[in-house]
Amino acid sequence: MLFGASYYHEYQPYERLDADLDLMVAAGFTMIRVGESTWASYEPEDGVISFDALARVVDAAHARGLKVVVGTPTYAIPPWLARAHPEVMAQTSAAGRLPYGARQDVDFTNPTFRRYAERIVRAVAQRFGGHPGVIGFQVDNEIGVHGLRSDELVERFRAHAADRLGGVEGINEKWGLTYWSHRLTTLDDLWAPDGNTNPGYALEWSRFQASLTVEFLEWQRDIVREYIAADQFVFHDQIGGDSAGNTAMREIANALDQVAVNIYLPMQRALQLPEGERAETIGLAPWWLVDAGTSTALWRSDMAYGLRGPRGESFAVAEAQASSIGDQATSVPPFPGQLRLMAHLFASRGADLLAYWHWHTLHYGNETYWGGVLGHDLEPNRVYAEVASIGAELRRVSPELEGLVPDADVAFLYSRDSLRALDFMPALLTPGTDRPDPHGYHRAFMGLYQGALDSGMQARILHPDSDWSAQAVLVVPTLYIADDALLDKLIAHAESGAHVVLTFRAGYADEWARVRWTRAPGVLREPSGISYQEYTTLISPVPLVAHAVEGLPALDLGTTPIATAWADLLVPEGAEVLAGYDDPFLGDYAAVTTKAVGRGRITWIGTKPGRDASAALIRWALAERDQAPVADAWTVPPQVRVSSGQRPDGVRVWAVANHSWEPVTIPCPASLIDVTEGGPAGSELVLAAWDSRLLLESRR
After folding, report:
1. SS3 letters for 363-380?
2. What predicted TM-score, i.e. pTM, was given to this entire model?
3. Last residue of a domain, one of 362, 383, 403
4. Is residue 307 included in any domain, yes or no?
5. Is residue 424 within 8 Å of 202, Cβ to Cβ?
6. What is the C-alpha to C-alpha distance for residues 631 and 453, in angstroms, rounded to an integer?
7. How far apart are CA 154 and CA 583, in angstroms?
8. Do residues 666 and 635 make contact, with C-beta atoms less than 8 angstroms apart?
């Protein structure tokens, strides 16, 4: 596992290159990431390009045995380019272009920008493409923050929509443009996105925007590949989790040589277990972090692992926090041990590179208080000491993690299209308000994903075009957008012997965001054994009641079984009722149903279950397939989380972590080797506060 940080010698207040690199080597670093943010330093004037200063860093790192990832600096343009060519600034609405002064404020589709970008990309690739210390290139950085809307792009979208939907008449029909007199006569009638209210248009515009990010990164990739050696890779660091709104996560991952993500999350008490309904953030989570808690770190890791390859592939954590993130009003540096705990978690879920952003805390600029390994005084500190201990440990244990495939008891199907559609036309309310929640898809997905974690499971996150054949239990949260082929694939997966768990809104709209005109759930009606014609928003939670079903495992819904946010008014048509509502109105309808299909089963969850009920339902689905979570080999208290994976030789690797201040002692389930501490683990594992261990089963 490669280990290091982003390093910006250009940002240091005085000359300290040798001192910095020597400290990195002493901390066990094996790599650094450079160059993605400083175009103006390499080209201070139009056409005056020099990478001598960067080469000095790369050469000095290589001399010390540090590998280097070089970034192309296209996401933050120099002032002279914006001054000379204001047309390169991004236009995100009809109101005008973004002002200069931020980052990612450029229209990366603009031909003038492309001309200048190509020149700097070719220059950096030519300079470092054959360098023996450079292992790879990062193209651009965290793309997709802004939706681009120039007149040229609106014209491109018209052509895109006509090609995808079948010309003007296809657009009229698939988007229902008879409504509100929006019917097109010519393609020129198709309006710009600014005032759009049509969900089909919104979904296709989102797809179009995402395709632009893929095209731009592929364009840079192809330029870089003209210069690099065969053993040098190209990646792009997407924002971990759902990524930026205008990206095509899976397509970007498959277009490049390796998956890379940036994973940030609140620490301190936010990582404490058990989490409860909401992870504790002590009021200091940065505003842009939707999630908190250890489940967020696992979700972002599992999402990254599932982006590439038929069933997943290892990934790089190109950026992770070493200290506090955000600004000085939200200072939450990690508790002692938490950085090590996170390193173990990432490794157990398939990461093969971990790099902190960044080496030293900046003394100026927008990210002045985004903490690095070193603080503002640039001296080794508590964080540096913990990072150094992690570096020394990873040097020892990395060979034991080679080729690790994370265990997965259950798989989740992630639908980018459903996320986009339910962002534009939400199904759920923001909790405690009367406002629609644009994050409703994510809430529904994470509710079930967290339920799986709470019940001791590990997960694989898959996509509509993934290979599902190995997944005995496939959970499909809120699949609002789906074509008939995808629904048929789900049915076939159940018929082949899997347990498919569907939820409210599944299959309700087709691939063009049109609601199906057959009784819900349409194509899924007969195999699911249910139908419904109504649904209701739940303003307050409704108790759930489990029902016994002959021949199936008993369902224990936990201590606080509740339905929240939504309820399909389900009528069984051959399905068994697994759970109902304790409510004078909803009590006439089913909440959860299940039906055997071929050699498998389809279960329908018609509501958003609370955390206890979510955990119980996912656990029940696994038990119905006569399976148990891999981590059931351990008996652990609620504050301990276990994750694991298997090496190519069949040896299982365990990461066992104490997410609390209270020391714990737990029995070891087998003869284990503690590779973090060295030697046999013994019959009991003693974990101090925030302690984490990597353990191997005895070799088979």
Report:
1. CCCCCCCCCCCECCCCCC
2. 0.95
3. 403
4. yes
5. yes
6. 10
7. 50
8. yes
